[in-house]
UniProtKB/TrEMBL annotation:
Residues 51-65 have a biased composition (Polar residues). This is ADP-ribose 1''-phosphate phosphatase. It comes from Phyllosticta citribraziliensis. Residues 44-66 are annotated as: Disordered. InterPro entries: ADP-ribose_metab_enzymes (IPR050892), Macro_dom-like (IPR043472).
Amino acid sequence: MSLFTLTFWGSRSFPVHRRAVASQIITNFARPRRQLQVSAIHDHHRATPEMSASNAAKASDGTPSKRQKLVVKEVTADMFAAPPNSVLIHACNCYGNWGKGIAEAFRLGYPNANRNHEQFCDRGPDGMAQVGSAQLIPPMDEDPKAPEKGNKKHYIGCLFTSEGFGARKDPPATILKHTRTSMIDLLQQIADLKKDGKAVGEIRMCRINSVLFRTKWEETLKVLRNIELEPGMPTEVTVYERPSKS
């Protein structure tokens, strides 16, 4: 095999095998030394989903971008006295049971939605809905004030914040964690409806978790107000506290 001599800066000449090194020499000397080092670093630190999400959240100048957070307003009024196509939200267990509290008002006022909800939960794994997710029920109950027009009343938003209910309800910390993920899920479903051209009105909710799930409203409110919104998601929700009975 033929030999030839190479001379490197600051080193002596030495013979090498031509065929053995020719390809490597061309490759290495075609790139600066720093580029070789950077390539090695990139190979060692391959992008993970977490890194990709972090990079996506950065602006073009490299600084973290600030996404808009959900605006939550509070009023004292009747949540159910809402315009057509409004979304009415409440917290649910995963077994399709609208038995007590404000859930009972939903069951009585929206019987078709209640049956839809029960079927939705029954079709889930182990006969129950996925905790931490949400269901958005389209309007399917007539407005009793104008039944001759065939008016449908409201969307019903169900947040599965606790797997069980009663003595089997989840602890407050778990309920708060599920409140965040289920609300994000619901907001995305509403965004998808609007993207498809569906009419969706204002978004109303009760003081979720605060009665039967025994979770402090102030803690739930903090979770809601810290939700970072994706593009297209609704930006505002109004919380309705029932007027006290005189």
